[in-house]
Amino acid sequence: MNPKKAEKIAKALADPNRLLILQEIKKQEDCLYCTDILDMIDLKQPSICHHIKQLTDNDLILAEKEGRNLKYRLNDEVLNEFIDFLEGLKKTGARIQEPGARSWKSEFRIQESEAGS
């Protein structure tokens, strides 16, 4: 998983209402209907739609149309990739850096060499 995708997922997971939605989906044997989410979470329908959109846009949940209803399930593949990404940071102590971006060390060396000139 690239750092940009991990950043977007982290932002999506930073909201307690979205975490609650994920927990409720998990409790219901990994599948929950949209109408059930409305009944379980104390938010207005537009707010729930916003949170569901954030979760689906970041591929954390998958929507399946079943008749006139939508049901949601966790996207285990993306969740596992995100967990692997985080574990990789822990194991290697790697810094997240955009491709092509200079590190603070290279910036310091450039400034140091310019100052010495």
Task: Give the helices and strands, then pairings.
Blueprint: H1 3-13, H2 16-27, E1 32-33, H3 34-40, H4 45-57, E2 61-66, E3 69-74, H5 76-92, H6 104-116
Antiparallel strand pairs: 1-3, 2-3
Could you tell me the mean pLDDT?
A: 82
Largest sheet: 3 strands, antiparallel
Strand content: 5-15%
* Oligomeric composition of the shown chains: single chain
Structure summary, number of beta strands? 3
Shape category:
elongated
CATH H-level superfamily: Winged helix-like DNA-binding domain superfamily/Winged helix DNA-binding domain
Strand order of the largest sheet: 1-3-2
Structural class per helix/strand content? mainly alpha
The number of helices is: 6
CATH topology: Arc Repressor Mutant, subunit A
Helix content: 55-70%
Order of helices and strands: HHEHHEEHH
CATH class, anyone?
A: Mainly Alpha
Computed over alpha carbons, the radius of gyration is: 20 Å
**Distance between the first and last residues' Cα:** 42 Å
| Count of spatially separate domains | 1
Low-confidence segments: 103-113
Task: State the CATH architecture.
Answer: Orthogonal Bundle
Descriptive overview:
The structure is a single chain. This protein is mainly α and 117 residues long. The protein has one domain: Arc Repressor Mutant, subunit A (Orthogonal Bundle), CATH 1.10.10.10. 62% of the residues lie in helices and 12% in strands. It contains six helices and three strands; from the N terminus they run H-H-E-H-H-E-E-H-H. Strands 1-3-2 form a three-stranded antiparallel beta sheet. Strand 2 (61-66) and strand 3 (69-74) form a beta hairpin. It is elongated.
